[in-house]
Amino acid sequence: MLELNRLAIIPARGGSKRIKNKNLVDFHGKPIIDYTINNAKKSKLFDKIHISTDSNKIINFLKKCNIEPEFKRPKRFSDDKISIAEVLKFVVNEYKKRNIFFNEVWLLYPCSPLIKHNDFITASKKYNKTKKNYPMMSIREYDTPIEWAFKEKNNILKPKDIRSLKLRSQDIKKNYYEAACFVIFKTDQIFKKSSFKFYGYKLKKNFAVDIDTMEDLEIAK
User: Which residues of 42-74 are buried (b: 16+ CB within 10 A; e: fewer)?
Assistant: First the structure.
């Protein structure tokens, strides 16, 4: 049995719909996934970096980076209805079959090119200071209080909560959403039902970019 500390899993299936071949799309002269891979390498945190993909195009690119995955993602885990959690479980179980075990599993998103490798290092230090009862998730602060949200019906906008709409911004607590850059798990947490509780690692607004549409891509550039 080989017990290692950290496994990085970068999910990169080939069937992206909103941006064709999204993980290989050009971002300032390099495929966008290359930024996540290089940040993972530069951090020197990971004993293994596994790109979970069903795409031969992505695998051919990874060969050039000397980071070809040890196994391919099956088609049954490559549908757009499959959750990231199922992908993580599959990868960890495949390593278990090879008698390789990890203390931590990091989910690294492939289309967050503005994050820096130092964020991985700082997040790891912060996570190690916790009791590790929950995963740690990269987060970003909402630009505008969610209490001021409107909902639309029949082309008419109405406040979701008229009382909250009257609050001053300085009287409202900050709210956050997942920045989709990384999540840190103790390995056993992947196999447990999520409590939807997380430690948060706050990213600066300009670096917390997850590219999912052409508009996201242009904003990031």
Answer: ebebbebbbbbbbbeebbebbeeeebebeeebe
